[in-house]
Amino acid sequence: MIENREVVKPYHHGHLREALIESARDILEREGRDLTLRAVAKRAGVSHTAPYKHFQSKDALLAAIAVQGFHELEYATRTARAEAGPCADDQLVATGLAYIFFGVQHPEVYRLMFGPRQTDAVSETVQAAGRSAFGVLVGVLENGIEAGVFNPTDPTTGAFAPWALVHGVTQMAIDRTGPLAATGHSAVERYARAALFSMLEGLRPRTETT
Hints:
Blueprint: H1 16-31, H2 37-44, H3 58-84, H4 88-105, H5 107-113, H6 120-147, H7 155-158, H8 160-175, H9 185-202
């Protein structure tokens, strides 16, 4: 699902970078990654050389969009966790659903966030934003471990399985594959909740058997 986004008006002094990112994101979400800096400049209402004042290449501009996407994902999951209350189970389900819905609402940005990078410098910038967003889920695991409801393990390692789950569900929902091939928002939520509740059981502390 693509949100309606207004066409960016010509930038005001000091806001060129933001206008370029907004214009590029609008093109990306409507037409995919085959955008050009010239098209971005035209949409932003600036000269075709203006983008180079902030971005050395298209890849650098796309990286800025990916970083913005990770910041938005972090905000969405952090907000969902806060609204879920102190229970680690509720936090995990809430953050998982927020993650999935973000990807479904912004499919092209989501693909860009987890797509290949062109240079090491660009890659590191995006990865840093990704690690920060992943930290929300790590925090949920830390909470559950401290409360004794999740298996005591390294929280970063423990957060990988829930992340892999929600990432996989998001990809299937975006690409409409598997059980999500022809489903709407409510069905995605139903499948996601079922998967997350199953994941919770796998996170429980293990009891030793004799």
